[in-house]
Amino acid sequence: MRALFSRIPISTATSLFSSPAKPLAPSPSLVPLRLVRRFAAMAAAAAEEFVKGRVFPNGVAVITLDRPKALNAMNLEMDLRYKAFLDDWETNPNVKCVLVESSSSRAFSAGMDIKGVAAEIQKDKSGDVKRLANDCTMPEIIEVFTAEYSLICKIHEYAKPYLCLMDGVTMGFGIGLSGHGRYRIITERTLMAMPENAIGLFPDVGFAYIGAKAPGGGAIGAYLGMTGKRISSPADALFIGLGTHYVPSGDLGSLKESLLSTNFTADPHKDVESLLTGYKKEPESVPQLEKLLPVIISSFGADKSAAESVEELNKCSQSGDTEVAEWANDALAGLKKGAPFSLCLTQKHFSRVASSHGNSENHLSKLAGVMKLEYRIALRSSVRDDFVEGVRAVLVDKDQNPKWNPATLEDVNMDKVESIFEPLGSDAELNV
User: Fold this and answer.
1) Which residues, in sequence order, are CB contacts of 283 under 8 Å at separation 6+?
2) Under the phi-then-psi rule, with left for phi > 0, alpha for psi from -120 to 50, and beta for the rest, what region is 21?
3) Which residue among 94, 259, 298, 404 is least packed, with the fewest CB closer than 10 Å?
4) Looking at the DSSP assignment, which residues form a beta bridge with residue 53?
5) Integer angstrom CA distances of residue 20 from 1, 27, 428
6) Strand blocks (E) in 82-200
7) Where are the alpha helices (DSSP H) in 320-384?
8) Cα–Cα dist 131/32, whole Å
């Protein structure tokens, strides 16, 4: 795949951002995702250590993410190796199910290796983020998102039982690796979030699809995606569908041992479900998101623009209900961290996916359709200056003071937001 994309002419790659009906002007500064590729190339040999695969005698195939110092952040080489295992095991009759785990209790996966991008930027003596970004080429951006989104679709459609032990930090692409699998095991240490707006991108990895299926008609997904709110309660994770089973972390070792000693029948899914039933527990608390659902819907419903969400939250912050007021102030603080353009884009995207849920004739009612759209959004979003600025402010200089452009929700040109969703050029769409 790397060789294939390296042969794409830059002029052709740039044309991917122009729809036949409404061409988009190329951005003067391209995101430093070329640095992702450079970092991945240096880590190519180490990828075998970071993503380990093993098939046990009883037919359980195990993927172990083993990059603890980076919280199992995934680079391109790791993505490709991960998918290669799934491709091979899918047609191997000796493999009955797949278990994905981490070597560390700190994290399942913190997502895409954005810190690797920042590390490469810091190696440049000039410290000129935009100059480095200008060296980026479109084929490298295409390669990264193609690998990630194709892997997500593979996981979602996997016929054999696919279990993820989501113990510890599970964010961004970490949710992409786990949240679309059949069996999603969470623990009391699971910490989930989609913080992409804070670096000028958008919450991708099909999170809008997960949110559309959650209670509230997509409002919870929009709330979490726009604010970057962290979910640490097992009850909340189960309520919104990010998890399917709650298993205390102390029981994960025993669960794995039991899985490795299972004599699988002709119905591995039934075997796995029976096993998980014996290990799952009920969370000790009730879901906070369920209690707050009415105000979440009124503030983040599919009919609410980003500006209208802020307006509604300001009203809620004056509520006599202390719990509602605290929630609203926390949500407002989360929104203030996001790039205004990203917030408007996220709201539009999540609203469209939520409105399509249950309508089988709409392509956004299926994950593959959502990922194809997110591919367009990701490619176009990644060449905006906001991403370069977000990486600088959050990961390089760490001043936590990004200078977004546009700077406010009122300044966002909604025609430009709409253009992000337009089809790509001929033969340039994601093929899943």
Assistant:
1) 233, 234, 235, 238, 246
2) alpha
3) 94
4) 63
5) 27, 18, 12
6) 97-102, 107-109, 162-166, 169-171, 183-186, 191-193
7) 322-337, 340-356, 367-381
8) 9
**Sign of the C-alpha dihedral computed for residues 215, 218, 223 and 224 taken in this order:** positive
Q: Across the chain, how many H-helices and E-strands are there? A: 22, 9
Per-residue b or e along 88-114, where b marks 16 or more CB atoms closer than 10 Å to that residue's CB: ebeeeeebbbbbbbbebebbbbbbbbb
The continuous run of DSSP H or E covering 55 comes out as strand 51-55
Tokens of 425: 């050029």
Residue 133 Cα to chain centre, angstroms: 23
φ, ψ for residue 244 (rounded to 5)? -110, -25
Q: Scanning the structure block, which residue is given the tokens 């884009």?
A: 345
Distance CA 31, CA 15 (A): 16
pLDDT tens for the chain, 432 residues: list them: 333 233 223 233 333 334 333 434 444 444 455 555 555 555 566 788 999 999 999 999 999 999 999 999 999 999 999 999 999 999 999 999 999 999 999 999 999 988 665 555 555 545 554 554 455 545 677 888 999 999 999 999 999 999 999 999 999 999 999 999 999 999 999 999 999 999 999 999 999 999 999 999 999 999 999 999 999 999 999 999 999 999 999 999 999 999 999 999 999 999 999 999 999 999 999 999 999 999 999 999 999 999 999 999 999 999 999 999 999 999 999 999 999 999 999 999 999 999 999 999 999 999 999 999 999 999 999 888 999 899 899 988 899 999 999 999 999 999 999 999 999 987 899 999
Contact 33, 144 (CB under 8 A): yes
Q: For residue 61, give the H/E element and its range.
A: strand 60-65
> Rounded to an integer, what distance in angstroms lies between the CA atom of residue 417 and that of residue 344?
7
How far is it, in rounded angstroms, from Cα 186 to Cα 218?
A: 22
Distance CA 260, CA 179 (A): 23
Strand, coil or helix: what is 74?
Answer: strand
Instruction: Please say whether the dihedral angle defined by the alpha carbons of residues 245, 251, 253 and 256, taken in this order, is positive or negative.
Output: negative
Q: CA 180, 185, 190: angle at the middle one, nearest 5?
A: 100
Phi, psi of 219 (to 5 degrees): -65, -40
> How many Å is the maximal CA-CA distance in the chain?
62
Q: Which pairing describes strands 162-166 and 97-102: parallel, antiparallel, or unpaired? A: parallel
Strand-strand pairing, 183-186 and 245-246: parallel
Asked if 245 and 273 count as a contact pair (C-beta separation under 8 A), the reply is no
d(C-alpha 299, C-alpha 219), whole Å: 8
Instruction: Tell me, yes or no, if the pTM score tops 0.85.
Output: yes
